[in-house]
Amino acid sequence: MKLEQERSADPALAVGNGSKAAFLRECKVVPGGSMRAASWFQPHPPYAARGEGCWVIDLDERRLLDCANNFFSLIHGHAYEPVLDAVRQAMTKGTAFGMPTESEIVLAEALAARSPRMEQTRFCNSGTEAVLAAIKGARGLTGRQRIAKFEGCYHGAYDWVEVSLDPVPANWDDEHGNPASIRCNAGTPDSVLGEVVVLPYDDPQRCAEILRREGPTLAAVIVDPHASRAGAVPMSRETTSVIQEACRRDGIILIADEVISFRLTYEGASPLFGLEPDLITTAKIIGGGMPIGAVSGRADLMAVFDHSSGKPKVSMGGTFSANPLSMAAGLVSLEHYSRQEVERLNALGETLRQKIRKGIADAGVAATVTGMGSLFRLHVGPGPVTGYRSAFPSPEAAKLIRKIQLAMLEENILLTPNCSGALSTPMTEVEVSLISDKLVNVVSRELGAQ
């Protein structure tokens, strides 16, 4: 009754304005009016009410084709019945224990079965936690403190890996012409900046020079060979070879961040790029929509976390780590993401990118689409896109990207803020055609009007 009275008094709360009403409510109790900047839309985000396969229904009862997919974590889409069944069954036995459960063994075995480099695994609750633990593990193994990461690459909310996450042309080089260590957040200590070496994503020669100079001081190099924030372009084999050689030469722990890119093949992303990582971090699709993260690697390296004989070199644990709900959801998610299904979804992704590229070429507008496997990202401008700097949008291009994202929302298709997206297993050629047709029409309209 109270809500009905409020709706009649305020047009913002009228039927059909459910998301706006929720936003106004949330602004009173949450800074920014939502929990994630990445889900922000102007003037307010759509609020999800429920999900059905590759569709999400918002509070205004719009059906949105979901290419954001909770930022690429729902490989089987929303409310996937096998996952729901597994979680329901697990929940009846208890949601969390201060004891290990058999479910953590089974999911760790499933990861080891997919990749020989994932011999042992420790679970946590997010990709951020997994990266944090892997870096601490590398420090414990090497006795060194500094790390290297690639410019513009996102590895979670940890001070060291946030360095040079979003540099701009005015500050991205130091006095020697190398990528500078730039703070992402106010208050990041100066000491952190000095402990992070920043590498260029698409310049293997300069990368080699930096690593030859700094390598003996490094505990770890962390790399995502298909980094969405760095353009969603595959890292060149020349660059991955430089990384691999430097790590072997100087005893550096190579960490592959496959939180997103693990979906690219049945075994994960590293084999695609000739990488032989020491530690691998995963999350997202290995949790079936539940909170999860993992650090995996060879048994001799994972021993850095071994607490069975006393205090480990590096402690790793958490109240909800390896909780049975996430373990059950993750196991079913992986079981249903078979080698055949990976190949089918990757083929759909290639079809989507080719359709978009052809449509853009036929329209004669300056745009391109990147990505591989089931991932894609739109760029405004003549290209080519080879890494973070060439993907960095001008102010005008950034405005156009936001306009395109909003226009796609009006077409009932949900993309991330930088107009990237992911396919999920409920999708078919029908959804691929819908996405490509809508995106080409929107891009042609918005760029043709310039």
TrEMBL record:
The keyword Transferase is assigned to this record: yes
MF GO annotations: transaminase activity
Cofactor: pyridoxal 5'-phosphate
UniProt-listed Pfam families: Aminotran_3
Superkingdom to which the source organism belongs: Bacteria
Keywords: Aminotransferase, Pyridoxal phosphate, Transferase
InterPro entries linked to this entry: Aminotrans_3, PyrdxlP-dep_Trfase, PyrdxlP-dep_Trfase_major, PyrdxlP-dep_Trfase_small
Entry's family note: Belongs to the class-III pyridoxal-phosphate-dependent aminotransferase family.
Protein name, UniProt field: Aminotransferase class III
Native source species: Agrobacterium arsenijevicii
